[in-house]
């Protein structure tokens, strides 16, 4: 009887430890909210600013470490934490006035900040960001999970977050510039 009880306890422990590697399921609404977040401009990125018909203003500009970009005729503008459309509107507003009557501004991020992959992956470190990167492609770029790495979850710390959040290992979960991904160790 004692052997049967020990066996049942061992099986229960294995099931509980195996469950530790399963993420808390995200609802479709949660995944939609994550996917609909815009990519925000961050320090260290390079922007291509085009002001139609204004070659002396158009060009490539770096977002400085304090989060600002300096553009001729507009001066110093905060770019950090803004989506492209919002920065376009702010720059258009700054340029409208004495010098330009109706500026047409478009902004493209030509060089994003990298993201970082740590934990149980083959190649830990910095990975260049490409638009449209998701968790599955990010881990593939890092050589994939080691034999000890979780096969179904990943921890992500977004640039604006303080702590890591758990996500399923899914192509539906986007990766953003500046993110830190950590593949946790699995138990079995």
Write a concise keyword list for the protein shown above.
Outer membrane lipoprotein wza fold like, alpha+beta, wza like fold, 24% helix, 3-stranded antiparallel sheet, 5-stranded mixed sheet, 2 domains, 188 residues, 10 strands
Distance between the termini: 28 Å
Average the pLDDT over all residues and give the rounded result. Answer: 84
β content, as a range? 15-25%
Largest sheet: 5 strands, mixed
Low-confidence stretches: 1-24
Annotation, overall tally of beta strands: 10
Q: Provide the domain count.
A: 2
The first-level CATH class of the largest domain is given as Alpha Beta
Class per helix and strand makeup: alpha+beta
The spatial strand order of the largest sheet comes to 7-6-10-8-9
> Could you name the CATH topology of the largest domain?
Outer membrane lipoprotein wza fold like
What's the architecture of the largest domain in CATH terms? Roll
Percent helix among the residues?
10-25%
The Cα radius of gyration reads: 23 Å
Q: Helical element count?
A: 4
Q: H/E element string?
A: HHEEEEHEEEHEEE
């Amino acid at each position: 009887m004692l052997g049967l009880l020990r066996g049942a306890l061992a099986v229960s422990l294995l099931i509980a430890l195996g469950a530790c590697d399963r993420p808390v399921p995200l609802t479709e609404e949660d995944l939609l909210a994550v996917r609909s977040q815009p990519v925000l401009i961050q320090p260290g990125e390079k922007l291509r600013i085009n002001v139609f018909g204004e070659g002396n203003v158009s060009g490539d500009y770096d977002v400085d470490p304090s989060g600002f970009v300096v553009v001729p005729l507009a001066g110093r503008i905060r770019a950090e934490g803004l989506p492209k459309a919002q920065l376009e509107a702010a720059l258009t507003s700054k340029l409208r006035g004495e010098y330009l009557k109706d500026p047409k501004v478009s902004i493209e991020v030509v060089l994003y900040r990298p993201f970082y992959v740590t934990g149980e992956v083959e190649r830990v470190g910095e990975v260049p960001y490409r638009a449209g990167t998701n968790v599955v492609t990010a881990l593939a770029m890092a050589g994939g999970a080691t034999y000890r790495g979780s096969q179904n979850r990943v921890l992500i710390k977004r640039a604006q977050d303080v702590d890591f959040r758990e996500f399923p290992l899914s192509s539906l979960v986007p990766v953003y510039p500046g993110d830190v991904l950590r593949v946790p160790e699995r138990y079995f």
